[in-house]
Specification:
The protein contains two helices and nine strands; from the N terminus they run E-E-E-E-E-E-E-E-H-E-H. The model is unreliable at 1-25 (pLDDT under 50). The protein has 148 residues and is mainly β.
């Protein structure tokens, strides 16, 4: 597993390599790593996920009214990459949290160009996964306390 930071401002990003074959010398089985780009921690990061392993990364920052925390995990199952995002934050209205689960087939890991024009200077050559949302939930603790 590895994280590879994309170059910022250089315009020389390279298209993600989707697969890396790893041969286990003991059993002779071929494992496939999968690589893809994600936007996290205010930049693009190339993620490499290995079979039978879960990779986790997080982001935390304080805001003017509280905090924001995000934990992300990725893993491989049946030639698909799963990506779970858990958020927890608090502002003047109280605490909220949420979780989302996405899936992407291996052949769709580098098909979508970043769509926000403010990232153009760092996006040349970056292609993002075409994630499909599997599930999503959110919780508003203040609304629950108020009986909503």
């Amino acid at each position: 597993m590895s994280l590879e930071w994309g170059p910022s401002g250089s315009g020389s990003c390279i298209r993600a390599k989707l697969y890396e074959k790893i041969i286990n010398p003991v059993i002779g089985r071929i494992y496939m790593n999968m690589r893809f780009w994600l936007r996290t921690n205010s930049g693009f990061v190339k993620i490499t996920v290995s079979p039978k392993r879960v990779i986790t990364w997080h982001e935390f920052y304080q805001t003017e009214e509280g905090y924001h925390s995000e934990v992300q995990t990725a893993w491989i199952e049946d030639d698909k990459v799963y990506h779970r995002v858990y958020t927890d934050s608090q502002d003047c209205d109280g605490r909220t949290s949420g979780t989302s689960l996405y899936v992407c087939p291996s052949e769709s890991l580098a098909v979508r160009e970043p769509f926000n024009s403010r990232y153009d200077y760092t996006c040349q050559g970056i292609y993002l996964p075409n994630w499909e949302r599997v599930s999503e939930s959110q919780r508003d603790y203040a609304a629950e306390a108020a009986g909503y």
